[in-house]
Fold this protein.
Amino acid sequence: MTEELSNRHCKPCEGGTEPLRADQVESLLQALHADWTLSADGLEISRRFKFPAYSRTLGFANAVAWIAITEGHHPELVVNYGTCDVSWTTHAINGLSDNDFICAAKVDRLVNDDE
């Protein structure tokens, strides 16, 4: 299902729709890399990515930014020397939408977890 999610595109969300239900969130979370976690309040998914050098971290952060711009859906990024924390939520609906999982799946494609 990760491949399916990463091939989809975000749809504009200006509010007026309901956030995903808990069962939908759990199902979609299973389609992502196992390191994605759901916040305690259920409003956000996040993952920490680790890199051996600051230049690799910045390159990754820029690639995530490109996904965000292309999809029109923007994460919170926290960039440090060897880590980049990526968090997705849909502010317009105060919760999670398909867009969050689509973008998370696209971010998963940026890294090779076998390294």
The chain has four helices and four strands. The chain has one domain: 2-9+19-108. The first strand starts at residue 37 and ends at 38.
